[in-house]
Amino acid sequence: MSLEFLFTSLIIVLLPGTGVIYTLAIGLGRGFRASVAAAVGCTIGILPAALASIVGLAALLHTSALAFQVLKYLGVLYLFYMAWGILRDGGAMEVNADKSTRSYLKIAVTGTLINVLNPKLSLFFLAFLPQFLPADTAHAGLALVQLAAVFMVMTFVVFVMYGACAAFARDYIVQRPSVMAWIKRCFATTFGALGVKLALSD
Description:
By secondary structure, this protein is mainly α. It has one domain. The protein is built from 10 helices and no strands.
C-alpha cells in the first residue's frame, strides 16, 4: 500500500462531503457522543458502494477509456452540484442548535443512508482505487478490498475528529451566523476547485 494512496485518501476524507456535513451538524446540535454515532453510520454507509464498485471494477477496467471519461465528468458535475448546494439558502450546511432526543441508533442509521445514497463514494471507488493497483497485481479483488478497508478506517477516525471539533465549537458557531457563512463559502470554493481540477485531469 503506497504513501500516495494514503495521502490521497486522507485528502478525500478531509474534504467536506455530505457525510462530513452531517457529522458536523450533529456535533453542533447534539454534542460529541452523537457525532460519534454519526461517524459510525457514515462509515458503515461506505460498504455498499465499496462492494458494488469492486465487483464491477473488473468489467470497467476492460472497457474503453470512454467509460472512465463518463464517470469522470459525472464526478465533475457532482462536485459543482455540492458547491451550489452549500451556498444556497437552506442548503446542506444550514446548521441550527437542534437538541432533539433522537437515539444514537437513529443518528447512525441516518448517517448510513446519507452515504449509501451519496454518488461521491461510488465515483471515488470506481475512478480512483484502480490507479493505486500495481500493474502486476495477482489478486486485484483482494487488493481493492484492502484499499477500501483502509479508506473506511480513515473515514471513521477523521469523522470523529470533525465531530469533536464541531462539539467544541458548538456554542461559538451557532451564535455567530457570519462565521457559518464564511465556512460555507470556503467549502463551496473547495468543491468548485476540485471540479475544475477533475475536469482538466487525464
